């Protein structure tokens, strides 16, 4: 992102879960996405990150997004994305990107066999 202050741009307040991989660490951390905009997001969780840390966030329907930690306040932190995203994609139903999940087609129910009535 450039040096222009864009924190007043529209952002979606929502509740999603995402995986954050922090440069230099082996395991990703699951976080709650509290708000999301084209240029960044606010995450909440036990990630223990420092300002300036390089991260990769796996967002539903978008996939991996690279960024850096812009601020940290308690268990919440802001991530500035390297490239802008379409935040509305993360709200859409269904799953795409690099997720392990895939959408399934419904399986039709079998017709009920009426058989012989039971005496009560």
Automatic annotation (TrEMBL):
Composition-biased stretches (Basic and acidic residues): 110-120
Molecular-function GO terms, alphabetical: cyclic-di-GMP binding
Region described as Disordered: spans on this chain: 95-120
InterPro entries cross-referenced by the UniProt entry: PilZ_domain
Pfam families, alphabetized: PilZ
UniProt signal peptide: none
Domain PilZ as annotated: residue spans: 14-88
Origin: domain of life: Bacteria
Name of the protein this chain belongs to: PilZ domain-containing protein
Species the sequence originates in: Aurantiacibacter aquimixticola
Lineage start: Bacteria, Pseudomonadati, Pseudomonadota, Alphaproteobacteria, Sphingomonadales
């Amino acid at each position: 992102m450039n040096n222009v202050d864009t924190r007043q741009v529209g952002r979606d307040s929502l509740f999603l879960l995402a995986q954050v991989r922090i440069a230099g660490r082996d395991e990703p951390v699951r976080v709650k996405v509290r708000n999301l905009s084209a240029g960044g997001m606010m995450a909440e969780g036990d990630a223990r990150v420092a300002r300036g840390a390089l991260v990769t966030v796996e967002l539903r329907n978008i996939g991996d997004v690279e960024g850096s930690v812009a601020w940290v306040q308690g268990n919440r932190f802001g991530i500035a994305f390297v490239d802008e995203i379409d935040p509305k994609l993360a709200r859409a139903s269904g799953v795409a990107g690099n997720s392990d999940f895939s959408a399934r087609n419904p399986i039709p129910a079998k017709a009920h066999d009426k058989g012989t009535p039971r005496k009560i």
